[in-house]
Input
Amino acid sequence: MAPIERITIFKIPNEGDRKRVLEQYKVLAKTAVKDGKPYIIQLAVGLSVPDPRNKGFNVSVKATFASLEDMQYYDEQCEAHKALKAVAGPAKEDAVTTFFENIL
Output
């Protein structure tokens, strides 16, 4: 099975909230485990470069998982992701997530 690439973009109006979300992603990168082992293959997070095409979305995240099962674990059971959602949920005005099987 090919890796699963997950893209999430956030619209977070408040600069302080953006900083808190970015810091929480740093925590997630160090603490996200499945069966006691890190399971996110790669995580890239940052502020979006200002551009009209962003339509106000200003935080971008790309996560790579070995399988759809690992991504589902992230969504449903990962304690580090639950902690992230507790910070990002109230801060965000909007968010969009998409994922795909990498064909390359």
The beta strands are 4-11, 33-34, 37-38, 40-47, 59-65, 94-101. The chain has three helices and six strands. The CA atoms of residues 21 and 87 lie 6 Å apart.
